Amino acid sequence: MEFLKYLIDLVLHLDRHLGELLQQYGSWTYVILFAIIFCETGLVVTPFLPGDSLLFAVGALAAATGQLNPLWVFGLLSLAAILGDTTNYWIGNRIGPKVFQKEDSLLFNKNHLVRTQKFYEKYGRKTIIIARFVPIVRTFAPFVAGIGKMPYSRFIAFSLGGGMLWIGSLVYAGYFFGGHPFVKKNFSLVIVMIVFISVLPAVIEFWRHRQEEKKG
User: Are 3 and 43 in contact (CB under 8 A)?
Assistant: First the structure.
């Protein structure tokens, strides 16, 4: 419960926490951000880490303080996202669905795997790109691609494009709009809106699935 409260506070007040991080660690903040994005995309046990909201907040902080170079942020975090995807792909390729055999596993939630598989059924290979903007699915998409033995050459092509598009669009959105008076005054509300918009496709897909089950 305490961890959940901390996580909610972290997401809602990313601007404050990132500011404190930058003051305390300086240039090492790049490394910390790299690690967060890598883990959020590369490890199926950490889909709860902030993604979209973090990128927007980092862009806004870069514009507000000038202590983070947006080009460095874009390059390093794009690399983190691509390396994370690659790691996740090969974990799925080597381990496969074995880790999801236990139905009630806390760390390896089988429902996330099933949801991502349905996402693939709907969008095909484009899932690697589209999933970048959908929390949870973003973490599991490369894992499922590995399980499905998608050719790595094809996978990495989609991963490169999707990773740079995801990082670039959100970091630079934060950089250019984060300094707007409304955004600065209502930063927590903007972050909530970003999270809401991010999870909305998954909510709609879940609702459609429930409706289909009722009809069936």
Answer: no
pLDDT at 3: 44
Mean per-residue pLDDT over the chain, rounded = 79
How far apart (Å, rounded) are the C-alpha atoms in residues 216 and 169? 40
Query: Are 33 and 76 a contacting pair, CB within 8 Å?
Result: yes
Q: What is the arithmetic mean of pLDDT over 3-22?
A: 62
Query: In sequence order, what are the residues at sequence separation of 6 or more whose Cβ sits closer than 8 angstroms to the Cβ of residue 145?
Result: 89, 92, 120, 127, 128, 155
Query: Domain residues of the chain, as ranges?
Result: 2-215
Nearest-5° Cα angle at 57, 53 to 169: 70
- Give the number of C-alpha atoms closer than 13 A to the C-alpha of residue 103, restricted to the C-beta side: 0
pTM for this predicted structure:
0.79
